[in-house]
Structures are given as C-alpha cells and as structure tokens.
Amino acid sequence: MCGIVAASAHRDVTDILIAGLRAVEYRGYDSAGIAMQFNGSLQRQRIQGKVSVLENLLASHPVSGHCGIAHTRWATHGVPSDRNAHPMVSGERVALVHNGIIENHQELRDELRAAGCEFTSETDTEVMVHLVSAFMDQGADLFTAVKSAISRVQGAYAIAVVCAREPGVVVGARKGSPMVLGVGFNEHFLASDIHPLLPVTNRFIFLEDGDVVRIDAETYRVEDA
Predict the structure, then answer these.
(1) CA 221 to the chain's CA centroid
(2) Which of 139, 163, 187, 207 lies 20 to 30 A from 220 at CA?
(3) What residues are paired with 190 via a beta bridge?
(4) pLDDT tier, 78 (very low <50, low <70, confident <90, very high otherwise)
(5) Got the DSSP string for 205-219?
C-alpha cells in the first residue's frame, strides 16, 4: 500500500507534500521521498524509514519549490532501502512516483539496458521513469511521453511525474490503482486518495482507469483512454 501526493502552486508546496505523506501513513510503508522542481532542476531526497525520518533528512538537506511529488513505498520489487525508495529519476531531469506493479518490467528493463539506460535500483518503477525519459529524448513533451510510456506497460499503476524542463507541470496517470485530482484556487494536486488533500481543497475529481492528467498551478487537463 503506497501513497502518492503531488502539487503545483504559486507557493512553496514542500510542507503540503510532507503533510500529505503523513496523512497516508495508515497505508503502511517502508520508505519515503520527495522530488521538487527548483530553478530548472530537480531536488530529490528519499530514505528508508518513516516520514519522520524523511523530515529529519530535510532539516539538514532541505528542498523547496512550487511543484513537486512525494511518495511512501511498500516494497514489492526490491528490498526496503534508500536506493529503492521513490521518487525514481532518469538523468536527474525526470522524477516519478508509482503505486502498483508493472508485470512486464523485466522485458522493458532488458530493452532499456540495451539502449544504454543504467539502472540504480531493483524496482519495477525505475523502468517507468526511463521509458518516459526515452520518449522525451525523441522530442515528446511530458504529457505525451507519459501517454507513450504507459502504452508499453502491462500491470497496475498510479503515477505522478515531473520534469526539470517543464516548470510547474505534473502529469499523472492511473490504471487499476486509484488517483484523485484536487482542484484549488491557482493550485492543483494529485493524490492516491482525498485524505492528503483535505487541508488544501474540498473539490475533487476521481480519475478513472485509463485517464491521464496534466496539472499546473492555473489549469488541469484530463484525457481518457
């Protein structure tokens, strides 16, 4: 049982994301992490242990930004460890969090390795972030790259993705694992359920299987299967 929280706003959303992770601690997890867009780059911190351990890490290695993603992970592929904690990154420019299980991860991993991708974790999730990055290398924007990546994936997923070169944008998608869009005033959110978002909005759109969503601070767009 993993938890996802993502946000795009005109204010620092770090505290919103961490509070959101606390709200999904009931799901059970073994590690926690966060990735933020900041000045055209990505900042990431992740660690095995509870959200309180992540908060201690952030006290000495802070991150900040108006757009980011956060996650609590329950190990499926790969043992509980720092290097298997989400968010996963590709090339330090794309970061992704994922709930669910990718059934054809080994086939995709072999294909990506043959194309030159280097893997640093044992997770099926890392396959997803490298797939998104590969489609962006071919010229796709983040929304299109996510759609192309999920077309290659077999299994269940809810994902949230950010990219250093598209400030303020989060793209999400779901199939077989829940995701909700929170609509605020000049800020928008994604989460695995409404509980992390109740402090910031009371307006929700429950995404359906096959939906892909793009949010920034001002707008949202949902495209169905």
Answers:
(1) 17
(2) 139
(3) 6, 181
(4) low
(5) EEPPTT-EEEE-SS-
DSSP helix/strand/coil, 3: strand
Mean local confidence (pLDDT), 169-192: 97
SS3 86: coil
Cβ atoms within 10 Å, residue 189: 28
Q: Residue 127 is encoded by which pair of tokens?
A: 């396959």
Kindly tell me the sign of the dihedral angle through the C-alpha atoms of 35, 16, 73, 221: negative
Tell me if the pTM is above 0.90.
yes
Q: Rounded to the nearest 5°, which phi and psi values hold at 196?
A: -65, -20
Q: Where are the beta strands (DSSP E) in 39-139?
A: 41-48, 67-73, 88-90, 94-102
**Tokens for 53?**
């351990």
Q: How far apart are the first and last CA of the chain?
A: 25
Q: Which two tokens stand for residue 195?
A: 């509980």
Instruction: Give residue 78's identity as a one-letter amino acid code.
Output: G
Peptide bond into 199 cis (omega under 30): no
Q: For residue 77, is pLDDT > 60?
A: no
CB contact at 8 A, 27 and 205:
no
